[in-house]
Structures are given as C-alpha cells and as structure tokens.
C-alpha cells in the first residue's frame, strides 16, 4: 500500500484519480518541514522521515503558491501564510501590484527504502537534495537524534528519494468559487479559478496533476 503523507485530505482526493483504486491511502503524519527556499529539499527530507515512521512506501507532497512580483512569496511558506494572513489578505497584497502573475508548484517525493534505476522522465535529484538538506539551510531541522545534519555519509543520506515536479502558471484574483482547498479561490488559470473547477478539470491542468502524472507513469513500470 502506498501512503500519501499529508494532513490535507484535498491532496489525497486529487491523487486518487492517478493511482489504481485502493492502492493509496492517506498517512496523516505532520513531518517536520525544514526551512528552505525550494520545495524539493523539504519534500525529500519529509519523505525520508515519513518512510522511517511508516515502514512502507510513502509519497510526500509539498506545494506552494509563488507570486512573481513578490519574488516567489509565499512559496515554501504558503502553509504558514495561509494560517496567519489567510488568502483574503494575500489577495489584498497582490491587488496593489501591477503584475499579478503567479504559479503553483508541487514536488512529490517518493521513498520506499530501496534504490531506484535511472529514469529519463522523472526528476531525480536525490544527491543534490541530500546535500542541500545537510547544508546551511538544513541546520534549522535540529531533530536531536537525527544523524543527517553532519553532511555526507550518514545513514539517512543513503535512503534514496525520487522526485517529481509539476507547475502551473496563472494569476492571483479576487476570491471566486467553493471547490478545492487552500489558495484555490484566488488562483485563476484560463479564466477560471481552481475553486471553480471540479477535481477532474483541476487535475488536468494543475501543478499536482502534472507531478502525479509523472509519478504514476514511473510507478506503474518501476
Ligand atoms: P501537508 O503539508 O500536511 O501536506 P499542507 O496543506 O500544509 O498539508 P503544503 O505545505 O504542501 O500542504 O501546502 C502549502 C500551502 O499551499 C497550504 O496552505 C495549502 O493549502 C496550499 N496548497 C497546496 N496545494 C494547493 C492547491 O492545489 N491548491 C490550493 N492551495 C494549495
Ligand atoms: Na507541507
């Protein structure tokens, strides 16, 4: 059984349509997110931690909204900003900008304790990610007994993680629609907000859909 590691059931609903019926279930595990300005090292570290916790194959999903004129803010801090400011105030901030372009990004990180054969389609940056997680940016994740912080040959470092990324461009607008979750009401793509789309339509264009598509293809014939 593949465990989709998230506290957010909305993500699991979207993932289900890419994977065989009954082959995935939510693991509601709130892994500690390291501080980093990219999603990949956060997801990779999360996948290693979740695999150690679950002992079965895990898929971690880290996503965020990146506003171009704000240099990518809130990006990897999207969850914190949703909880503190809320999406209405994000809209107020972006409303004052001339350029309201933004993108959603999603990084999926898969770990099952085994190594992976090279695949031309998937993003596989395990080494770089491990290095990044152990570098200066990784210093904030000070778990205590975790032997990952020293940089280099630690046991955790040798747990391979496979990464899959998805991206969708759009713009920030005044909130519209009741579907989806998170920032969906203020993110417009092709004239509709994600909250105005049903799951099938959102999946067809979304950051998560693109990443899941790559993952599902690799997972089916790994
Ligand atoms: P987990 O970390 O437990 O998976 P989360 O919702 O905090 O749950 P993220 O850290 O990946 O997940 O999400 C960052 C923020 O971006 C959070 O506020 C989400 O609601 C939001 N978000 C992620 N994917 C989204 C999507 O497809 N549509 C709208 N908002 C999204
Ligand atoms: Na998260």
Automatic annotation (TrEMBL):
Domain of life where this protein originates: Archaea
One annotated GO molecular function: hydrolase activity
Keyword Transport attached: no
Keyword Hydrolase: yes
Disordered: annotated span: 131-157
Keywords in alphabetical order: Hydrolase
Cited InterPro entries: ITPase-like_fam, RdgB/HAM1
Pfam families given in the database record: Ham1p_like (PF01725)
Coiled coil: none
Family per record: Belongs to the HAM1 NTPase family.
Protein name per Swiss-Prot or TrEMBL: Non-canonical purine NTP pyrophosphatase
Species this chain originates from: Halorubrum rubrum
């Amino acid at each position: 059984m593949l465990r989709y590691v998230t506290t957010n059931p909305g993500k699991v609903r979207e993932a289900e349509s890419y994977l065989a019926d009954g082959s995935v279930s939510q693991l509601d595990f709130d892994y500690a997110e390291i501080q980093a300005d990219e999603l990949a090292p956060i997801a990779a570290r999360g996948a290693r931690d979740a695999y150690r916790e679950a002992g079965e194959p895990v898929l971690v999903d880290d996503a965020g909204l990146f506003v171009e004129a704000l240099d990518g803010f809130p990006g990897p801090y999207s969850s914190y900003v949703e909880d503190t400011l809320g999406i209405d105030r994000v809209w107020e901030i972006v409303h004052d900008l001339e350029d309201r372009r933004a993108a959603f990004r999603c990084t999926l990180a898969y770990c099952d304790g085994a190594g992976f054969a090279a695949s031309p389609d998937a993003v596989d940056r395990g080494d770089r990610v491990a290095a990044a997680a152990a570098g200066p940016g990784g210093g904030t994740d000070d778990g205590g007994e975790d032997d990952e912080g020293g940089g280099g040959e630690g046991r955790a470092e040798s747990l391979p993680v496979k990464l899959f990324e998805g991206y969708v461009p759009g713009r920030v607008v005044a909130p519209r629609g009741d579907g989806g979750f998170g920032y969906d009401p203020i993110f417009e793509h092709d004239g509709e907000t994600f909250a105005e789309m049903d799951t099938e339509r959102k999946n067809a264009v979304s950051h998560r859909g693109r990443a899941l598509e790559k993952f599902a293809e690799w997972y089916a014939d790994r």
